């Protein structure tokens, strides 16, 4: 079993007479189409997906750009699973990574928050509208959840970026009050086009925003401040952030994709190579991407030649995927900027969404990734479909209090009690597949280990010789000091004896002279 990465893309027709768009899943290595879902036309930032996990199948949401309808698809069927009637036509949607909440925004700046799932090992689909509020003065272009689903970030046509705390939006005691944002970022001067939330728990994560004002800004939600501003020669349409936050890509309408490194190499005071972070000085810190050496600029620029509508970096951080207005999907190697392949199966359409995920084990028409015996159809039967209830069109306090929903527990095998039968041998095999070195083989690894052992043995021998020399020097010093102290002690004893003898002679002489004096007195 190998966990293969796949590409999920959404397309819309270039003209209204071209027919509906599609949702497609492609293999990232070969580019072949794995599955296709039709009868959908979702605009930019209007597609969201939840992966298959916790013993439940995944699903995809697509808000239609010309009507107040949201289509729901599952990986197990290539047909429309559910059509949800929305309170208004949505301009952006998002789902948190665990599929717990779904948020949608409108052209009037209003945001809706619905429930999709509440327990990690039991799917509860209710569609209850938790909150709805006027978040911006103009259209909301993009919505993003933080990775821990603790905050919702919205970027709008009014050039504002607002951050909303999910616990406050769900608080029953605050339902009659107008929601207030956790913080608002207002340094952009033109409409915001894209938002990406970095790794980490909120508010420790960083937020990256792009705008038509030629800038990409890095924000710190913890301090509610701007860290750095990157200024580009063209308005920025979309951005992609490396999973480790080492660099990001910014694409403009003219087909230029700029690579911006967030770390640079420098020399410390001892002339040693060291890495330091770029920016972080605050509002006054502006880095102009075009004010660089032309040779270095060519290395950091990818020229696509047509409008780039959406981008994403793969899970491994090694490849950049760029969707264009002509329906092409270009795959670039990040290290060399080399074009690896181009997917042209959607030529004539406009790519509005690209994301990467592991190939779903319950994907329709394909072999399941489960290790248990049985056919693909049996595997799909073992993985129940994740239910998605129609979303409420208005807020209903009674429905929230009752909260009557269906509950589906994950299927468990009777023999092992586990959903997946994953042996130790298969685990070791898959681990070796992912961590195998790219350029160094087993023989080279053995040679390097043997040379390292030889180096350590020689080092031990050298240290033992130095230890013997140190012991010899210490013994000589000890004997010299002891002998000197003994000699000094003997000399002091002899001097003291001579002094005592001289004192005795003087006392005898004094006593003899005293006797003679007494004799004279008697006479």
From TrEMBL:
Keyword list, A-Z: Coiled coil, Nucleus, Repeat, rRNA processing, WD repeat
Gene Ontology CC annotations of this record: nuclear pre-replicative complex; rixosome complex
Principal subcellular localisation of the protein: nucleus
Taxonomic superkingdom: Eukaryota
Biased composition, class Basic and acidic residues, residue ranges: 487-499
Compartment(s) where it occurs, according to its Swiss-Prot or TrEMBL record: Nucleus
SUPFAM superfamilies for the chain: WD40 repeat-like (SSF50978)
Region listing for Disordered, in residue ranges: 487-523
Chain positions of WD repeats: 133-166, 207-229
A Pfam family matched in the record: WD40
Coiled-coil blocks: 446-473
Signal peptide residue numbers: none
Any GO BP annotation: DNA-templated DNA replication
Function: Component of the RIX1 complex required for processing of ITS2 sequences from 35S pre-rRNA.
PANTHER family, A to Z: WD REPEAT-CONTAINING PROTEIN 18, WD-REPEAT PROTEIN 18
UniProt family annotation: Belongs to the WD repeat IPI3/WDR18 family.
Subunit note: Component of the RIX1 complex, composed of IPI1, RIX1/IPI2 and IPI3 in a 1:2:2 stoichiometry. The complex interacts (via RIX1) with MDN1 (via its hexameric AAA ATPase ring) and the pre-60S ribosome particles.
Name of the protein described by the UniProt record: Pre-rRNA-processing protein IPI3
Organism, as annotated: Trametes pubescens
């Amino acid at each position: 079993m190998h966990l293969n990465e796949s590409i999920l893309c959404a397309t819309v027709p270039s003209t209204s007479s071209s027919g509906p768009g599609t949702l497609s899943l492609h293999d990232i290595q070969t580019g072949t189409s794995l599955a296709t879902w039709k009868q959908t036309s979702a605009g930019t930032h209007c597609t969201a997906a939840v992966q298959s996990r916790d013993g439940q199948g995944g699903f995809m949401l697509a808000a239609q750009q010309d009507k107040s309808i949201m289509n729901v698809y599952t990986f197990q069927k290539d047909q429309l699973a559910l059509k949800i009637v929305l309170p208004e036509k949505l301009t952006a949607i998002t789902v948190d990574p665990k599929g717990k909440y779904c948020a949608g925004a409108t052209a009037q700046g209003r945001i809706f928050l619905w429930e999709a799932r509440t327990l990690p090992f039991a799917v509860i689909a209710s569609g209850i509208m938790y909150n709805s509020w006027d978040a911006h003065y103009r259209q909301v272009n993009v919505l993003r959840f933080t990775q821990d689903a603790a905050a919702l970030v919205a970027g709008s046509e009014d050039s504002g970026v607002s951050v909303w705390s999910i616990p406050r939006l769900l608080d029953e005691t605050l339902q009659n009050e107008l929601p207030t944002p956790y913080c608002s970022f207002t340094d952009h001067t033109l409409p915001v086009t894209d938002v990406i939330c970095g790794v980490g728990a909120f508010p420790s994560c960083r937020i990256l925003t792009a705008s038509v004002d030629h800038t990409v800004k890095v924000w710190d939600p913890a301090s509610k401040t701007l860290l750095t501003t990157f200024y580009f020669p063209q308005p920025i349409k979309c951005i992609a952030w490396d999973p480790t936050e080492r660099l990001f890509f910014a694409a403009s309408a003219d087909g230029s994709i700029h690579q911006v490194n967030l770390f640079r190499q420098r020399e410390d005071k001892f002339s040693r190579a060291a890495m330091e972070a770029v920016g972080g000085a605050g509002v006054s810190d502006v880095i102009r991407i075009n004010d660089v050496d032309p040779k270095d600029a060519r290395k950091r620029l990818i020229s696509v030649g047509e409008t780039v509508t959406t981008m994403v970096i793969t899970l491994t951080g090694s490849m950049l995927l760029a969707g264009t207005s002509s329906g092409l999907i270009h795959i670039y190697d990040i290290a060399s900027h080399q074009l690896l392949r181009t997917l042209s199966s959607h030529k004539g359409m406009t790519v509005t969404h690209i994301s990467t995920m592991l190939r779903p084990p319950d994907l329709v028409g394909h072999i399941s990734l489960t290790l248990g015996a049985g056919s693909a159809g049996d595997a799909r039967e073992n993985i129940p479909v994740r239910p998605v209830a129609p979303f409420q069109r208005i807020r209903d306090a009674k429905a929230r209090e009752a909260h009557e929903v269906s509950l589906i527990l994950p299927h468990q095998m009777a023999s092992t009690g586990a959903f997946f039968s994953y042996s130790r041998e298969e685990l070791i095999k898959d681990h070796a597949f992912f961590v195998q070195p790219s350029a160094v083989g087993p023989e080279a690894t053995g040679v390097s280990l043997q040379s390292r052992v030889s180096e350590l043995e020689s080092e031990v021998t050298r240290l033992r010789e130095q230890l013997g020399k140190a012991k010899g020097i210490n013994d000589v010093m000890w004997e010299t000091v002891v002998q000197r102290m003994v000699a000094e002690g003997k000399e002091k004893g002899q001097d003291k004896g001579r002094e005592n003898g001289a004192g005795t002679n003087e006392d005898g002489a004094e006593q003899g002279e005293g006797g003679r004096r007494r004799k004279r007195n008697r006479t």
